[in-house]
Amino acid sequence: MDNLSIINSFPKDFIFGTATSSYQIEGSNYGNCGRSHWDSFAKKPNKTYRSQDGGVACAHYLKWNEDLDLVKNCGFSAYRFSFSWPRVLPEGKGLINNEGLSFYDKLLDGMLERELKPFGTLYHWDLPINLAEKGGWVNRDTPKYFADYTDLVMKNFGDRLYSIATINEPWCASWLSYYCGEHAPGLKDLSAAAKSMHFILLAHGKALEVIRSHNHKNAGIVLNKAYVTTKDDNEQNNIAAELYNSIHNDWFDSAIFNGEYPKNVLDLFKEHIPENYQKDLEAISQSIDWIGINYYTRAIVEHDKKIKDINLVLTKGPLKKTDMGWEIFPDGLSKIIQSMIKKYSLNIPIHITENGMANKDEIAKETINDHERIGFYYSHINEVKKLLDKKIPIKSYFAWSLLDNFEWAFGYSKRFGLVHVDFETQIRTPKKSWYEFQSYLLK
Ligand code: IFM
Questions:
Q1: Are 38 and 180 in contact (CB under 8 A)?
Q2: Does 400 sit in the ligand 1 pocket, CB within 6 Å?
Q3: Would you please indicate which residues are annotated as catalytic (active-site) residues?
Q4: Is 321 helix (H, G, I), strand (E, B) or coil?
Q5: Mind listing the pLDDT tens digit for each residue in 259-317?
Q6: How far is the CA of 168 from the centre of ligand 1 (A)?
Q7: Which of 71, 196, 314, 336 could disulfide-link to 174, CB 3.0 to 4.6 Å?
Q8: What is the CB neighbour count within 10 angstroms for residue 318?
Q9: CB-hemisphere CA count at 13 Å for 290?
Q10: pTM of the full predicted structure?
Q11: Nearest to 138 by CA among 86, 102, 190, 93
């Protein structure tokens, strides 16, 4: 059936939405926004594609009205977006940028006027530069400042948010950024990685306390999941895959749901883990109202003793790939959710907060026929349907992304949008995938 008619077999109260994030679309040059570590990272040589940054991005700061119309007119009932910490607190703490507050004020009212449920996220990676210069997520003070920022957001916007997520993809904000060096701040340092893996979770815990003090009852965290497999049944490959799975998945799940860290990762981190980390696990494992899952692909792991500290690498699989080089493996979505439920006896609502693909889209006669993307969405939404049929409490599905946008280290070279953006003119052109969603969501 490779079309999206499957949407019509979903329960009436199931939420279909689309997602974006602040740094990827807003344009950090507008509205007296403070600098984040992504602005400075992009300025260093060879960190992002052609040294591109999010200074202008999709100019969403100026075009938010048009963009909300694109969400609404496609038939979605929810919009997932993130607040930019430096936009409201340019120095990370203290001085408030009222222009930033008024931007989110208008954006939220715009969502509510259009009857779009606002799914807010507090942190989608734009760490204020001031705090980054003091160590960022390696500094125990950063979670405290994050709690103060959370308080500001909740005070001003909490009552308009349908749901609030603390951190988007803590694995990316810590391991990928402090160990792999692929994201800001670009470190390749096991000790920094160990600290950031803990402090990003502590920030989640501290923010939750603040959210509860504002009486908000729909709070969660968004985790990016990889379905981890081993290259073959070789014993060393199995051990490597186990370690990779613990770093990518269990570190976060186990801290949040069980209040403990996996032993194999603690062994790897040894003395690098922050002092008294055990005490923080109580805040980290407070109950949440829902869990968000971002899913894109699987990870195939192989032992490799040449790789420092972890002795493993990811290998290329045989399946068809997206423009990111990521294998298309819809089965993985069901597998990871079912395995989380089993391992952690989960019984809270699940939101699929991101899923989508980068594609080499081409405009021909003013239309963009991204049939590959339609196939991708179909195959993953089909997995969600199978899970619902098994009575797994999935409440929503968000397509990543509304717009082509700043894809971090890949700059503007990768297109994930349902809507094409011409980055010279800022003209938006809905792709065939947008029309495909529309034809079933507006039925
Ligand atoms: O663009 C990113 C997003 O910021 C976080 N999740 C994965 C997406 C695609 O790489």
A1: no
A2: yes
A3: 169, 354
A4: strand
A5: 999 999 999 999 999 999 999 999 999 999 999 999 999 999 999 999 999 999 999 99
A6: 9
A7: 196
A8: 7
A9: 22
A10: 0.98
A11: 190
- Our measurement of the distance from residue 322's CA atom to the centroid of its chain's CA atoms, rounded to an integer in Å, reads 18
Question: b/e map of 288-306 (b: 16 or more CB within 10 Å)?
Answer: bebbbbbbbbbbbbbbeee
**Segments of the chain scoring below 70 in pLDDT:** 1
Is any ligand 1 atom within 6 A of the Cβ of residue 327?
Answer: no
Residue of 38, 407, 410, 412 best suited for mutating to test ligand 1, as the one with most atoms within 8 Å of CB? 407
Crossing angle of the two packed helices 331-344 and 251-258, in degrees rounded to 10: 40
Tokens of 54: 């999010």
Strand extents, DSSP E, 36-176: 78-82, 117-123, 163-168
Contact 85, 92 (CB under 8 A): yes
Q: Check: CB of residue 219 under 8 Å from CB of residue 292.
A: no
Side chain identity, residue 222:
V
- Residue corresponding to tokens 């950063």: 142
Chain-centre distance of CA 294, in angstroms?
A: 6
Residue closest to 262 by CA, chosen among 207, 330, 197: 197
Nearest alpha carbon, ligand 1 atom 10: 407
Q: What size, in residues, is the chain? A: 443
Q: What are phi and psi of 345, to 5 degrees?
A: 45, 50
pLDDT, one tens digit per residue, over 95-150 is 999 999 999 999 999 999 999 999 999 999 999 999 999 999 999 999 999 999 99
First to last CA, the chain: 18
Contact between 393 and 348 under an 8 Å Cβ cutoff? The reply is yes
Find all residues with CB under 8 Å of 345, minimum gap 6, and list them: none
Please give the DSSP secondary-structure letter assigned to residue 418: S
Chain centroid to CA 359: how far? 19
Q: Among 382, 328, 314, 390, which Cα is nearest to 352's?
A: 382
C-beta of 404 in contact with ligand 1 (< 6 A):
no
How far apart CA 219 and CA 290 sit, in angstroms, is 7
Rounded Cα distance between 131 and 331, Å, is 40
- Cα distances from 3 to residues 7, 359, 405, 435, in angstroms, run 9, 17, 25, 11
d(Cα 366, Cα 430) in Å, to the nearest integer? 10
Spatial contact of 127 and 37, defined as CB atoms under 8 Å apart: yes
Smallest Cα–Cα separation from 397: which of 347, 330, 324, 341? 330
Whole-angstrom distance, CA of residue 59 vs CA of residue 403: 11
Burial class of residue 322 (count of CB atoms within 10 Å of its CB; 0-12, 13-18, 19+)? buried
Angle between helices 432-441 and 371-389 (to 10 degrees): 40
Nearest to 289 by CA among 161, 380, 199: 161
